[in-house]
Protein 1
Amino acid sequence: MPPKNQQARARLLEAARDIIRARGFAATSVDELCRAAGVTKGAFFHHFASKEALGVAAAEYWSETTSALFAAAPYHAHADPLDRFLAYLEFRRELLAGAVSQYTCLVGTMVQETHESAPAIRDACARSIHEHALTLVDDIKAAMAARRVHGFSAESLALHTQAVLQGAFILAKAQQSRDLAAESVDHLIRYVRLLFNHPAAEELPA
Amino acid sequence: MPPKNQQARARLLEAARDIIRARGFAATSVDELCRAAGVTKGAFFHHFASKEALGVAAAEYWSETTSALFAAAPYHAHADPLDRFLAYLEFRRELLAGAVSQYTCLVGTMVQETHESAPAIRDACARSIHEHALTLVDDIKAAMAARRVHGFSAESLALHTQAVLQGAFILAKAQQSRDLAAESVDHLIRYVRLLFNHPAAEELPA
DNA sequence: AGGACAATACCAACCGGTTGGTATGTACGC
DNA sequence: GCGTACATACCAACCGGTTGGTATTGTCCT
């Protein structure tokens, strides 16, 4: 038997991440979560005051784990800010691998369902997206200054990259394939190259 | 031979469009739908074999009503294919008005929740998105030929516009405002202008 | 034209199972 | 011996779906 002490909360959070991404928040029952995590309902409501509280905690857990993933990613190695930004986007495209519900975004899925009915979850999801976008802003600002690009804010471009990714996930779910999602990220990369007059702008694969 | 006087069916479809956009598919109960439509459960299951069948019908109803809206929209008046495409995108940005759940996309919302659990709904949503994107392909193809643009397919750019819009809706839901969504569409318009060397590419507002 | 009658459109009451949530208990480290 | 971490048993409300009906409509026959 797996170690039981202290682990119920973590196992529930992991189960929530996997099951909610596959089936959505409303369609995921507390019983199902408990079954998948191998704990009882008593344990669930010991750690989370309600299903909504679990949703908030799942969004925060998502923020922590994904920000660790991106912090450790290799794209930070580039010296030039624009190269870092482009390498980030290519990293995002490479992340589109395996089953659809393995590479899609928990908070993007949850916020669609809860934006009107569960403000606490919605705000936690909004924070997660916003904070991740913020990690791109310094590099975009530096690239804009270095290449004298203007006409929009660095924040809006950072958020636009997240919009493209979220939209790409919807396309991937609709047609059960990463192909369209990857092509959408390619368009985003082409946009950034055109915007900053990046030399490789004309060399993208079809 | 379509049966006449199907008030209940039409009212249920309209209720489904409004409520599912606000709360999601799984969180919308059959009882709630019936209450909103002013019909009984018997009427519901007379017209739809199951809740899943209602979901499929709602996606098809969405396709019909939105394709009528876009067919009648003024952007078709432009003589140049690229101008038509750009006017379409500006039309989409203008559509971002009123409450969040009034301008977001039913099928984009539904496919997120049902892509694994209800293949029939997922496929109906995928068809809806794909068919709408298809209405843009001829103009994009003509614009690409006229301006000798290559390196990607017209289909992939058409689908990319839908990805950006779907992602913009997620941003709008997360922050309960159209602002970020509109800015994301602005980035998309700027991308298309850069791609086709459109004269106004440098004149976009911040 | 009008009566027979069947199909359609809709309704109220109900069903078994599941839902999120609770009350109460226990095992155990500090 | 007390707080934390769980487990068991249970609940009322609600879930999607079914029942057995009635009112309205369309169609065929004469």
Note: Residues 5, 29-31, 41-42, 45, 50-51 of chain A lie near DNA strand C (CB under 10 Å from a C1').
Protein 2
Amino acid sequence: MIPRITIAQAGAHVGESVQIAGWLYNLRRSGKIAFPILRDGYGLMQCVAVKSALPEALFETIRNLTQESSIIVTGKIRADERAPGGFEMDVENLEVVQRVPESDPYPITPKDHGIEFLLEHRHLAIRGLRAHAILGIRHEVIKAVRDYFDSHGFTLVDTPIFTPAACEGTTTLFEVNYYEDNKAYLTQSGQLYNEATAMAFGKVYCFGPTFRAELSKTRRHLREFWMVEPEMAYATLEDVKRVAEEMLVFIVGRVLENRREELKRLERDVTRLEAIQAPFDRMTYDEAIEILHQKGSPIQWGDDFGGTDETLLTQDRQRPIMVDRFPASFKAFYFEPAADRPDVVLGVDVLAPEGYGEIVGGGQRIHDLDLLLQRIEQHKLPKEAFQWYIDLRKYGSVPHGGFGMGIERAVAWICGIEHIRETIAFPRTLYRWAP
RNA sequence: UCCUCAGUAGCUCAAUGGUAGAGCAUUCGGCUGUUAACCGAAGGGUUCCUGGUUCGAGUCCAGGCUGAGGAGCCA
């Protein structure tokens, strides 16, 4: 019985006859020799089919294969410097599972394509080497995030996707009919629920999709994206910053360890990633404003950073920046105010270098009942909907905090790619939600 | 919602207001070591839509549609 292997395993089978199942990536041929390039999801394998060594009908079949036809190739693995992957396979047999017809050829040719065409054909474009590298790194990042939290005492407690009330205005929420005329909203964050589960487990995290109905149309925005959100009981802003820093160093290290090939494919400057070490630069919002003024930004104290401000702050830095102590005026209702400065809150944003902007946002939450009630009122939020959240401040309230990290922004930064839409298999952007 | 840019062959793009073209893909032919192979040939067009200016519009004008980039927005 000939063993079925993947292309990634070829190195362990040199000199053996094996079988690889995949798709025809490309085909180069002359009259009496053909080089089908096989793709199996694990790598590329150059196959060599020599006319004189094969039955005539089989050689003709190989010679006339079409791009992305599904095939199962049997042959002997051989190390060869002329092959792109270092190994090649001398074809002994080839079974065509499905042949792509010439009348309707595979639309994505090896030459250039525009972004519109690639997004229309995203279900096929994900077969390409670039998408394969990016999505492989995405997988590594997610696995690293989970390994980090799992090995630091955090329990994964998933939070609901359907939520009952708008936390802050319905304009950025997707509304759905839950049943009859009862409305529910797709989650924007699991944080409030995390605050409840943290009181049950001590340290928790959730990881899932989040939905924002914003009319944002930039390289940093998706309408559906994935977010990991840890939350810790008995934690302060400093604890939150330390965990965020440690986690980011850990995931970048994992990608460098396990995904060199993919980074090379993306032409990522890995020295930029190797520089991601603790401690990150830390500054307050006040200090950030001062730096921005020196760099000519028109930003006023009390404004949130714009995209260009984030770029200005990070452009000459090797490491991420942690900015904390923001004006309470533009931050959410649940942030704990600074003890010495009631006009600023204990929130922190982590800005990635190279202009990738905010990848982490979080901070310390209000734990005092009266203050929370006051803030809910100030923000004109429906108190009834927050009753369960208010309860958390009645029954053993403690200082606590956490953060959220958008997976796609982190992956775009680590990959060094221009647009966040490439970091998810099927991106949902403002005007495109298919395929 | 606003600003900017774009729309020509299946794809990526050319074409001074004057005969609509190339490369890739497809088809046919050639080639025993190719590396997005190469060489020769063929087929392939509602130039996004509607209207206008002009002897003549892919090109200029008006409106619309679609897409992209950005702004605002972004717990």
Note: The domain at 7-98 of chain A is CATH 2.40.50.140 (OB fold (Dihydrolipoamide Acetyltransferase, E2P)).
